[in-house]
Design a protein that fits this description.
The chain is an alpha/beta fold and 311 residues long. The chain has 10 helices and 9 strands. It folds into 2 domains: 220 residues, Alpha-Beta Complex (Spore Coat Polysaccharide Biosynthesis Protein SpsA, Chain A), CATH 3.90.550.10; 71 residues, no CATH class. Helix 1 links the parallel strand 1 and strand 2. The longest helix has 16 residues.
């Protein structure tokens, strides 16, 4: 479906991730053009990605915020009928081309979080009587900040949506522009990663702003009633949320996807494609037993390193 562009952002620490994401598409027969909004790449990195076919690398300039806040700007570079955002730390288990675009141009195909996820996302807030929708204080802030939102307007959605994958029609370029501009207005400068706990109403940065607009921006696309990429095991988008990522080590959370992810590695090795570097220890099949054994220590080591970095 070449009427749809897949867009993602990555810095060099995620080069293996974006490489295997695109490889999973090509292995499955997905031929969409891919736009990679890259930062900190070295000579040859773009060439390695472009060898996967129909890949264009756009180099991000100096940014005041985390690269995750560049999603809207990256998506605005696409010129196809549909544009689909995909986080680069994930992969497809099969051909999902026909499942990506929303069924109607008026909608955005995105996954709405479950009630339990929504509660965890706003764990530091007091919820209303139902204990499952957005906290009142968050809604009041979002309603006040979103341009054109009517005082007392009811949110269009009962819960937040995940910004790891979503697709919308080009008629909503104005929505992407509003998202880009709103992040500049309400998020402080400074790269603190993908979460900033100092911000009570926008701690998920780009995702928080996206949800504020989906709730209150006049003319925002409607959220689809069904998210279609979590039903069929052979047509999933698998997102590795936890750290470290599989190319750095396997955790208890990520290891169940070991076999499917290594199938993508096998594909690139058979294809003779140039790799982003030496094949990591965690992506070598002969190390499977050790990877399984080291799951706990890998997670602890990562947490320890992050604690040291904060100190």
């Amino acid at each position: 479906m070449k009427s749809n562009t897949i867009v993602t952002v990555a810095n060099r620490g995620y080069l293996w991730g974006v490489f295997l994401l695109i490889a999973s598409m090509r292995r499955s027969g997905m031929d969409e053009p891919v736009l990679v909004y890259g930062s900190g790449f070295r000579d040859g990195d773009a060439r390695i990605l472009e060898a996967l076919g129909s890949v264009r690398t756009v180099f991000a300039g100096e940014a005041e915020r985390s690269l995750t806040c560049s999603k809207a700007e990256a998506m605005l570079q696409a010129d196809t009928e549909f544009v689909t955002w995909v986080d680069c730390d994930g992969f497809f288990t099969g051909n999902v081309s026909e499942l990506l675009p929303p069924p109607s141009p008026d909608e955005i195909h995105i996954r709405m979080r479950s009630a339990e996820e929504n509660v965890r996302a706003f764990a530091n807030h007091r919820f209303g009587d139902d204990g499952r929708s957005f906290p009142k204080a968050v809604l009041e802030c979002w309603r006040r900040d979103v341009p054109g939102a009517a005082p007392g307007a009811v949110p269009a959605n009962p819960r937040g949506c995940s910004a790891c994958l979503f697709s919308l029609h080009r008629s909503h370029r104005d929505f992407l522009e509003a998202w880009r501009d709103q992040m500049v207005r309400v998020l402080p400068a400074g790269n603190v990663g993908v979460v900033d706990r100092r911000l009570p109403y926008y701690h998920q940065l780009d995702e928080s702003v996206l949800n504020s607009l989906l709730c209150f921006l006049p003319g925002a696309p409607k959220v689809t009633k069904e998210y279609r990429l979590d039903k069929d095991p052979d047509r999933l988008f698998v997102h590795f949320v936890c750290h470290p990522k599989p190319w750095a080590g396997w955790t208890f959370a990520s290891y169940p996807r070991y076999d499917r992810y290594l199938e993508v590695v096998d594909y690139v090795l058979r294809s003779g494609l140039e790799l982003p570097g030496p094949l990591p220890f965690s992506l070598r099949r002969e190390n499977r037993g050790l990877c399984r054994l080291l799951r706990g220590s890998v997670s602890l080591r990562h947490k320890f390193r992050r604690l040291l970095a904060k100190l």
